[in-house]
Amino acid sequence: MLKDFTPPAWVREVVVIADAGYPANLTLKLIEDLQWTYVFAMPRTRKFTNGRYVRDLVQHLPKSLYRRRATYKPDGRRQDYWVFMRHAELHQLGDVTIVLSKKRRHFGPKRVKIIVTNLLDASASVILSHYAVRWGVELAIKELKGGLHLGRMQVSQDADRVERSVVLPVCAYLLLVHLYGNEEGACKDWSLFQLKQRCTEALMQDQMNRVEQKWRRKWRKINHAA
């Protein structure tokens, strides 16, 4: 997908954001070859060039070295994290910035998120704000799965049918947003499920209107015959 992606002409910088299951070595190398930047959550099994694991840093880092930093979600809301940031050299990645973050200062090593980026001059707040963009994608996929049954369609292994089974829920999502998104736009928080409910109400009202008109016509015919 990265090879097939062509940025629009107005794009000045591409930042690839992904969770810990995505950053394979070949993927990271491809991103660097394309001269893009990345902000990835990393597994604890990554190694420094000296052979030590990243998990060792997370496990033994004192709480006193974490500092509170403000980040901002895509909708503008503020979220504070306790953060430790340092520049390091990782095996097969070279010079990177490592950000360790957690929501509460007293949280232990198991609740620390490891984020690695090749944005060497960015602050911890900027890096975490970049990573927060990923959550919007996660919510969209959750809504597509829960509201429009993405991945639940009974299709064969034919590539065209599989592709259509993915495209159809996305098209349905876009249609609902086009039809009813402006009505819900006044609210800051709205979801696909609200749009589905609005669509169901509109269809039911339309059906009731058609039934009413049908019986009005019949009643007029009965009165006319009488």
Summarize the structure.
The chain has 226 residues and is an alpha+beta fold. It has five helices and six strands.
Question: What would you say this structure looks like, in words?
Answer:
By secondary structure, this protein is of the alpha+beta class. It folds into two domains: 15-139, Transposase Inhibitor Protein From Tn5, Chain A, domain 1; 153-226. It has five helices and six strands; from the N terminus they run βαβαββββααα. It has helices spanning 25-33, 54-60, 124-148, 159-184, 192-225, and strands spanning 15-18, 37-41, 67-72, 78-90, 94-102, 113-117. The chain has a six-stranded mixed β-sheet. The N and C termini lie far apart (71 Å).
Helix-strand category: alpha+beta
Largest sheet: 6 strands, mixed
Radius of gyration from CA coordinates: 25 Å
CATH A-level architecture of the largest domain: Alpha-Beta Complex
Q: Percent helix among the residues?
A: 40-55%
In whole angstroms, the N-to-C terminal distance is 71 Å
CATH topology of the largest domain: Transposase Inhibitor Protein From Tn5, Chain A, domain 1
List segments where confidence is low: pLDDT < 50 over at least 5 consecutive residues: none
CATH class identity of the largest domain: Alpha Beta
What is the succession of H and E elements?
EHEHEEEEHHH
Quote the average pLDDT. 88
* Strand order in the largest sheet: 1-2-6-5-4-3
The counted number of beta strands is 6
What number of structural domains do the residues give? 2
Strand portion, in percent?
15-25%
Q: How many helices in DSSP terms? A: 5
